[in-house]
Design brief:
about 100 residues, elongated, about 45% helix, single chain
């Protein structure tokens, strides 16, 4: 399988390394050149721009949105009527979660 990883900080770099060890091809993007160097190994490529990441992935390409627990906790702590709460509810619904409750 071929995957594009956006964000090569501690979590993204570790996920990329595990995916490569599992036999997958990873193309990683990060603004930070030092972060891009971390995944330099056979089976992993890094790019400096998102359009370059998309160009290196073979078609068909399909996005797979993911959220870290830290981001989820940050957004979940907001006002329940906020845009972030509505966005999270819509994503949960789209990916098999509960229905959006109407007030």
């Amino acid at each position: 399988m071929e995957l594009g990883m956006i964000g090569l900080g501690r979590m993204g770099a570790n996920m990329s390394e595990r995916l490569v060890r599992g036999g997958h091809r990873v193309i990683g993007f990060d603004f930070n050149p030092e972060a891009r160097k971390r995944i330099a190994q056979p089976g992993a490529t890094s790019v400096a721009a998102l359009d370059a990441l998309a160009a290196k992935l073979k078609p068909p390409r399909a996005p797979a949105p993911t959220m870290t627990l830290a981001l989820l906790a940050r957004l979940a702590s907001r006002d329940p009527d906020s845009f972030a709460a509505k966005l999270l509810a819509a994503m949960r619904n789209q990916f098999g979660g509960h229905e959006i409750k109407k007030a």
